[in-house]
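Narrative progress, year one. The postdoctoral researcher (J.K.) led the effort to move from monomer predictions toward full complexes, under supervision of the PI. The following entry was the first complex the group processed end to end, covering 411 residues in total.
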Amino acid sequence: MDKLKIGTCWLDGCSGCHMSLLDIDEGIVAVLNKADIVFGPLVDAQEWPDGVDVALIEGAVSNQDDLKLAQTARAHSKVVVALGDCAVTGNVPSLRNGIPVRKLLERVYVEGATVRPGVPTDGVPTLLKQAEPLHSAIEVDVYVPGCPPKPNSILLVLNELLEGREPDVGSKLRFG
Amino acid sequence: MTEKVKIRIDGEVIAASAGQTILEVARANNKYIPALCYMEGLSAVGACRLCMVEVSGVGRLLPACTTPVQEGLAVATSSPQLQSYRKITLELLLVERNHVCAVCVSSGHCELQALAQDHGVTHVRYPYNYPRLTVDTTHPRYVLDHNRCVLCSRCVRTCAEIEGAHVWDIAGRGIRSRLVSELQRPWGEATTCTSCGKCVQACPTGAMAEKGWGVEEMTKKRAAVSRLTSMREGQ
Ligand code: SF4
Ligand code: SF4
Ligand code: SF4
Ligand code: FES
């Protein structure tokens, strides 16, 4: 049997969910027996490849690049998992949502700057009006709340998905 | 002597006393009905709508916390429709204010968070409201964070009914409702507050906390507040 393909990425997140993914310890061996990680911060690939079976997406959708990557991942993956509270609820990145983007940037990069005040524009993606949960931008199939989700929960979800079953996280996981 | 009545909860015949509410009878008999604004020892107000149940012969749902039992009453507590309404109610509570559990003092000890988990709320299907809200830190010992308030009024009732100070009220209507201390005076300047801290202990969420605690560190002694009433009733 051909190996399955896992793609991962982080949008507006802290990488904590990916750390938790690495924390599945020897569980990773069982996962890698069934699947290859073909895209993400843990591997070298430059482009989200075609035919990904499971996409693990960390982070809220906060800027144009996040949005594009989320859409690409969705278009090329069978199952999309919102991994962690930022992807599931907006979480910490969404704390800015009550503040208009211009005011926010000026507060941080002009009023708050001690050297070279000015809002950066070069090489940084444009912020969206609000940092939103993943499912406000693309269709999500599986939600794994937690900040970060426990390694065991991630392993459980991955194992179920790689066996072709729908994981039942039901009442096992909570926000925060 | 209080009059005895027989009711059915999910088909099971249960003996109750007239004057008890459906929720009280259910709890006394280990039948689960979710509740948030209800707290033992306080008057019931029916604010959160989580405890809605089906009563046969009644064409609409009734709040278990404010509906008194009657002879022959038949209650259903867990139909698929009720389950789905409870989920919706919890999701709407979560979108109304800013519930960022990851940075909340009450995470891990919060009734709203626990109810969401118990009901399998793994995500929220409605757009978040993201209101801009204040945090009142003027009291020397306690904090009120409106971002986490669910307007259950447990603090209002605790302060008025148990402490007898009546510092709190809910002002405004609908989505603009806000908890206020002493007609909009900051909590620290409220002259009637005795700083007893009972409101803080009664609050089901991270909206009220003692100062000095970090994320996940605030645990509450709700049962101790409830006990005060039963001790006084026993006198
Ligand atoms: S009050 Fe409860 S639900 Fe709200 S952020 Fe705090 S822990 Fe989460
Ligand atoms: S600390 Fe005591 S007196 Fe002050 S508002 Fe709370 S319950 Fe009322
Ligand atoms: S502060 Fe707490 S107890 Fe008071 S209304 Fe808000 S959530 Fe309820
Ligand atoms: S517990 Fe009955 S309405 Fe809140």
